[in-house]
Amino acid sequence: MFIFLEKAVLGMALLRVLSGSIEIFAAILMIRFNSVEKALMVNSSLALVGPIILILTTTIGVLGMVGNISLYKIAWILLGVCFILIGAMKG
To answer: 13-31 b/e with 16+ CB inside 10 Å = b?
Structure first.
């Protein structure tokens, strides 16, 4: 009857639910303000939320796999996340 969920999976899922809730709240704020300038400010603030959630979710996932994966592969995963963040930055 009971479903066993890994703590890491539950943490990752909850972070994604939080991220989605923040996105929905931001959309509601944009509609409520009804101003392009304010909507752009709200949208710009979301640029901080995405990478933070990505880093936290990946960190939880990697920590959950520490016993099952080599340090070499963990380093590759973290390097890949860094490349994603660098590629997403506006330059």
So the answer is: eebeeebeeeeeebeeebe
Handedness of CA 25, 27, 29, 31 (dihedral sign): negative
Average model confidence (pLDDT) for the chain?
A: 89
Q: Would you call 52 helix, strand, or coil by DSSP?
A: helix
Whole-angstrom Cα distance, residue 59 to residue 8? 10
The answer to whether the beta carbons of residues 61 and 13 sit under 8 Å apart is no
Low-confidence ranges of the chain (pLDDT < 70): 1-2, 90-91
